[in-house]
Amino acid sequence: MASMKESLAATSSTIPVPTVAIPDSVIIDSVASASAGVDTRLIFPFLKLPAEIRNRIYDLVFVSHEYIGANGTLTKAFYHEAAKYRNLAFASACRQIYQESANIFYAKNGFEFFYIRPFLEFLEAIGAKRRKLLTKLKYNYSSGTPFVVLRYLKSCTNLEELEVSARVVMTNRKNSWWAYPLKDAKGFFLGSNPVIEFGGVRKFGKAESVSDEPPSARVHKARRSLAESLVKVKREENGHYKR
User: d(Cα 36, Cα 56) in Å, to the nearest integer?
Assistant: First the structure.
């Protein structure tokens, strides 16, 4: 019996023991969590999930079923809704999650704007790289000089849906916004279509106030001002106009 034990002991000492390589990041995270009093058994390894499952989770968290900004014409309403779906509390967990969720957020959401300022701030803030991720945009113009923001649309080269409209308040029993969309906006900005033509009017929301101008004058003014900026976009494209 003793000789058998000695034989087994000698044999086991010669059998190689397999080793598992543990990434330094896992060791560091575990040590950091342990030192912070966090039970490492409760940490879910989110980044170890397959990319397809992570993207599905991103869709549920970062993508709206409606255009972001469509539910309110005020600038603050757009920023509030955008912040809700960007969800930085989750997105900022680490650099990889931030980048992956940003790609989903910009590529799969639609964004709607009613004023020049938030539209311009949005397109400038996200930068040229993420403007190329955008697929759905709506811009409802009412006043001002929109050329400065319209020129950015040419850098949104991946757009699948684009709507640019002149909007005015029509006076009836209830004041309401009416929009005159530019026909083939995508072809105008990203294609070779130089034609500026507005389509049929559509009603899309209640307005709180109205100007003293007659409706026909308001329509003419809004469409003319938008058309003038659209002409500048084409002239700049052809090298004939500079800011």
Answer: 31
**The tokens of 94 are what?**
């680490």
Question: In this predicted model, what pLDDT tens digit does every residue of 157-185 receive, in sequence order?
Answer: 999 999 999 988 776 656 677 889 999 99
Q: What pLDDT digit, counting tens, does each position of 25-34 carry?
A: 443 344 444 4
Task: Tell me which long-range contacts 214-217 makes (C-beta under 8 A, separation of at least 24).
Answer: 215/168, 215/170, 215/171
Helix (H) or strand (E) holding 70: none
Integer Cα distance of 60 and 58 in angstroms? 5
Phi, psi of 170, deg, nearest 5: -105, 135
Query: What is the DSSP pairing of strand 110-113 with strand 161-170?
Result: unpaired
Q: How far apart are CA 46 and CA 11, in angstroms?
A: 42
Burial 201-217 (b: 16+ CB within 10 A, else e): beeebebeeeeeeeeee
For the stretch 37-91, pLDDT in tens is 556 567 788 999 999 999 999 999 999 999 999 877 667 888 899 999 999 999 9
d(Cα 121, Cα 191) in Å, to the nearest integer?
25
- Proportion of the chain in helix, strand, coil states, percent, rounded to 5: 50, 15, 35
Please write down the long-range contacts of 208-214, taking CB distance under 8 Å and 24 or more positions apart. Answer: 208/175, 209/169, 209/175, 210/169, 210/171, 210/175, 211/169
